[in-house]
Amino acid sequence: MRPEPSIPDSSIPRAPAIDPDAARGAHGSDTVRRRVVVTGMGALTAAGEGVLPFWRACIEGRSMLAPIEGFDAREFGPLRAGEFKGPARGRGERASGFALLAAAEALASAGLERSALPPASGAVLGTCLGDAIAPASPPVAGGLAAPALSLAAAYKLSGPVSTVSVACASGTAAIASAAACIGRGEADLMLVGGTDALSRFVVSGFWLLRALSPTLVRPFDQRRDGLALGEGAGLLVLEERDRALRRRAPILAEIAGSGTAGDACHMTGPSPYGDGVLRAMTAALADARRAPDDIGFISAHGTGTRFNDRMETVAIKRLLGPRAPLVPIDSIKPIIGHTLGAAGALEAIACVKILQEGIIPPTINLTAPDPECDLDYVPGEARRQQVRCALSTSSAFAGHNAALVLEGS
């Protein structure tokens, strides 16, 4: 790992001003982009099967991390992970099974049956490895796209179907891609999210990078020493708003804007100034026609690694300026682990619940504040606070960054 120079606030460049009309060029000056809403959600995590156990673990601040049982991981030391303990029922390998289970819940909560899906329905799945790597086996060729193809086959989707694999930003980037499809009129309904399964391959890679914590996952804490991996899936049903209103669907939130950007900095380390994630957040706000002052909550990538947490803090300060200390921020990774391609989708689901219920989950294990991570990370316990507009960010190896703006219904 590279040494980490200290970054004084006085040397941090400020973010450029956001032009609320900056997104018009992507859609044409005379084009009215269709609005995209969330009408259903499904989750499968170390907390169990379903959005409710996932959300309860988040707001109660209950860590679901435990020793790995799916394969022998003793060679990696005293690691803990967010492992799903139930069977991954359904056709295909573990990651596809996760996606199918979460999709069934998402569609049921949206009040949709297989026969009721519109003809222009599709799917975008974010994943790091899909079914290409079994939990304890050598690589299997051709499995990266399996989860998305499993969804397409299960629900006879004839609209756009694709796989997004941009490392740990995959789930967020997939939601951005699916929302754009609906916004452009290429689809009326999209099943979207992310899925990934734990494997020896993944654990050994992060272990060799010295990115895994042998103790506790402590995002933004001065003693943070790495992340814990997890597995699972998060699926959302996105629909064109007018169609959702016509069928009297439960509108849970709106995907108001999205943005993606690259660091072009290093294969594993982010830009120390948070340049890439700042550009992604700025683009998402411009796409949503919103200003930084509209943001009431930020769901951080918050891995608990030295580089990531400080970089995110710098990027948020650059985005929000003097308001940065006033906006609550959290990380749910100490609760369910870093679920790789599913992380951004599960964090988007958490944002929707925050917008609905006015409860912000805590960032657990944060008891020794880092002077370089000096924002409001909601330590200790959940906080009751109404939020109208949330920003969710994801960052990944190779400089991938993605962000979403979500608004209450």
Task: Please outline what is shown here.
By secondary structure, the chain is α/β, with parallel strands linked by helices. It contains eleven helices and 13 strands. The protein is globular.
Q: Which terms summarize this structure?
A:
disordered N terminus, two-stranded antiparallel ribbon, 409 residues, 11-stranded mixed beta sheet, Peroxisomal Thiolase, Chain A, domain 1, alpha/beta, single chain, 29% helix
Number of strands: 13
CATH architecture tag: 3-Layer(aba) Sandwich
Report the biggest beta sheet as strand number plus sense, adding barrel if it closes: 11 strands, mixed
Which stretches of 5+ consecutive residues score pLDDT under 50?
A: 1-5, 22-30
> What is the oligomeric state here?
single chain
Structural class: alpha/beta
Query: Total domains, how many?
Result: 1
Query: What is the element string, with H for helices and E for strands?
Result: HEEHHEHEHEHEHEHEHEHHEEEE
Shape call:
globular
**CATH homology superfamily name:** Thiolase/Chalcone synthase
- Helix tally? 11
CATH class group: Alpha Beta
Tell me, rounded to a whole number, the average pLDDT: 89
Distance between the termini: 44 Å
Radius of gyration: 19 Å
Instruction: Predict the CATH topology.
Output: Peroxisomal Thiolase, Chain A, domain 1
Strand fraction equals 15-25%
How helix-rich are the residues, as a percent range?
Answer: 25-40%
Overall description:
- With 409 residues, this protein is an alpha/beta fold.
- It has a single domain, classed as Thiolase/Chalcone synthase (Peroxisomal Thiolase, Chain A, domain 1), CATH 3.40.47.10.
- 29% of the residues lie in helices and 18% in strands.
- The chain has helices at 24-27, 51-60, 94-109, 146-155, 170-183, 200-208, 241-246, 275-288, 306-320, 333-336, 343-357; strands at residues 36-45, 48-49, 121-126, 161-164, 189-196, 232-240, 253-262, 297-299, 329-330, 359-360, 383-384, 389-395, 400-408.
- Strands 1, 2, 3, 4, 5, 6, 7, 8, 9, 12 and 13 form an 11-stranded mixed β-sheet that branches. A two-stranded antiparallel sheet has the order 10-11.
- Helix 4 (146-155) links the parallel strand 3 (121-126) and strand 4.
- Residues 1-5 and 22-30 have low confidence and may be disordered.
